[in-house]
Amino acid sequence: GLAKPSKPPEPPPPPPPPPAVDIPEEASTNALSVEGPDELKEAVAQVEKLRMSGEFGEAIEKLEPLKAKFSEQADQLNGIMAELKECKRDAVDLEFAVRQLAKDDQNAVDVANAKLSEGGEVARIILRKAVREREDAVASEAAKLLAEINDDHACSAIVARFMKKPESPIRKDLLDSLTRLAGNASPSSVAAL
Fold first, then answer.
1. Euclidean distance between the first and final Cα of the chain, in Å?
2. How far is Cα 90 from Cα 80, in angstroms, rounded to an integer?
3. Smallest Cα–Cα separation from 189: which of 163, 170, 169?
4. For the stretch 113-152, what's the b/e string if a residue is b when 16 or more beta carbons lie within 10 angstroms of its beta carbon?
5. Are 72 and 65 in contact (CB under 8 A)?
6. CA distance linking residue 110 with residue 101, whole number of Å
7. What's the rounded Cα separation, in Å, for the pair 30 and 47?
8. Nearest to 51 by CA among 79, 87, 78
């Protein structure tokens, strides 16, 4: 008898893609939260959104009237207020450092880079805000620094800047920063590209 021709073995299926990690812009390692009525929780969530966008003064203004309205949570709200005031104080020095990023004086740039690299979450918030709002030279340097420190929330700020001015002279710098951050990018933060 004739042997049946054998089929070549099927290749193994490809490995599943790594799970996507989609961290919203508002997410934070130090997110503000409070126990209490839903109305209070919603108001504190709005305060947190302001904090994460670098609007510390507005966050303080939004929180202030809540202390009288929700007196049972006064201790929690006072703790949040203290944290916001500390963020606002830190932001003054860090915003100055951000402005130094585009200077011609390399020493000033190096000092600013060091201060911002070691500035923790407030520095990252201020850098993201700079990417979204500052002039091109500062935004470009802020994006590079966020990529260097591997900030996992930077992608949405960089994409927002890119989409605002797609033909910007800093287009290449923004794309380079996004490429460096690609390992941490959520699909939703780069979908617009």
1. 61
2. 15
3. 163
4. bebbeebebbbbbbbbbbbbbbebebbbbbbbbbbebebb
5. no
6. 8
7. 13
8. 87
Judge contact between 21 and 155, C-beta under 8 A: no
Q: Are 34 and 40 in contact (CB under 8 A)?
A: yes
Return phi, psi of residue 120, to 5°: 70, -155
The string of pLDDT tens digits covering residues 98-148 is 999 999 999 999 999 999 999 999 999 999 999 999 999 999 999 999 999
Check if the beta carbon of residue 36 is closer than 8 Å to that of residue 77. no
What is the distance between the alpha carbons of residues 80 and 94, in angstroms, rounded to a whole number?
Answer: 21
Residues 6+ apart with CB under 8 A from 36: 70, 72, 73, 76
Backbone angles phi, psi at 97, to 5 degrees: -60, -40
pLDDT digits (tens, 9 = 90+) for 174-187: 889 988 888 655 55
The CB density around residue 87, as the number of other CB atoms within 10 Å, is 21
Rounded CA-CA distance 32/84 in Å is 10
Per the listing, tokens 């839903």 go with 38
Single-letter code of the amino acid located at 157: A
Task: Count other Cβ atoms within 10 Å, centred on residue 51.
Answer: 28
For the CA atoms of the chain, what is the radius of gyration?
Answer: 23
